[in-house]
Amino acid sequence: MKLTDTYDRNLTYLRISITDRCNLRCLYCSPGDPFPRLSHQDILSYEEILHLTRIAVDLGVTKVRITGGEPLIRKNIDDFLHKLRQISGIQDMALTTNGVFLKTHIPSLIKAGLRRINISLDTLKPDRFRRITGVNAFDQVWEGIQEAFHSGLSPIKINTVALRGVNDDELEDIARLSFHYPFHFRFIEYMPVGVSGEQTSAPLYTPEIQERFAKRIGNLMPVGHHSSDGPAERFKFDGAVGEIGFISAMSHHFCNTCNRLRLTASGQIRSCLLSDHQEDIRTALRAGASDAALSDIFLKAARTKGRHHTLNTDTPADVTGRMFSIGG
Ligand code: SAM
What we know:
This protein is α/β, with parallel strands linked by helices. It has one domain (13-326): Aldolase class I (TIM Barrel, Alpha-Beta Barrel), CATH 3.20.20. It has helices at 46-58, 77-86, 102-111, 126-133, 138-150, 171-176, 206-216, 282-286, 291-303, 323-326, and strands at residues 13-17, 63-67, 92-97, 116-120, 156-162, 184-189, 220-222, 233-237, 243-247, 260-263, 268-270, 278-280. Helix 3 links the parallel strand 3 (92-97) and strand 4 (116-120). The structure holds S-adenosylmethionine. The site of S-adenosylmethionine has 20 residues, from strand 3, strand 5 and helix 10.
């Protein structure tokens, strides 16, 4: 049996949140403090995650991404990644991080088998970084990015959430970095999930950003799309070494090609980031359920995947799950 949903999409990509904790308080993700966090015993152990991942791989998953919360604040992540990489059937292992603790982790991450990385960066201005994230750590992130670059991790993807009135005056500066660095700069539309603070009345969507780039930087030339690319539409400026991508979950959803399932830190399987529906697999796992029974829970979760999310419709679902707990 394979993880195929009722719309014939093959779910081959598992995003695994290993913690709901984060050292940053990004205003669009987890503004302010405190939010109730999971207790230690509610969080899946690494062994439990590995067990569930093996089952997911038997059901056809070939790509995994580790996220959170901030994955680099969970202890012994290197050892965990090493074990994850050993699971035969996983062809691609990636990590998403805010980059604050990246620099010192890089040698052990590479040793564990990590080859590519996504780093979130919403601004190039240290003061603004502090305003967006609540922490004065721009320099640490920038050093982490440089270290990732020099260590040969590739591709390095830089994720920027585009927020009108917050960082939209410097999206071009970020895009211009593609002339100097062979990174993939990806501009992400803000998704109104959870009770995130920055609900802009006038959202900033991809077409407007593309228009600005075309006017002020140059033509965006499409880059061929590969099935492993994920949802980003990829482009390049003439003469650039890096790429520009857009993730337009709101203005132009890509649900018809979505191949993802998510495993949250608390052991819930979510078939859609933008729907609160989830299947509890932790209870069965801890009760000693057989692998066949755990497989059934994965298969059931796959069947609950909707045709598309509703956030951009007249009757949007209320998504109360928060990005840091689902694993963005
Ligand atoms: N801590 C890691 C990081 O910062 O990359 C991983 C977790 S974070 C939730 C994963 C990604 O989700 C980040 O790139 C972040 O910018 C994005 N994100 C969080 N909240 C979002 C929202 N409301 N809309 C769009 N993207 C969001």
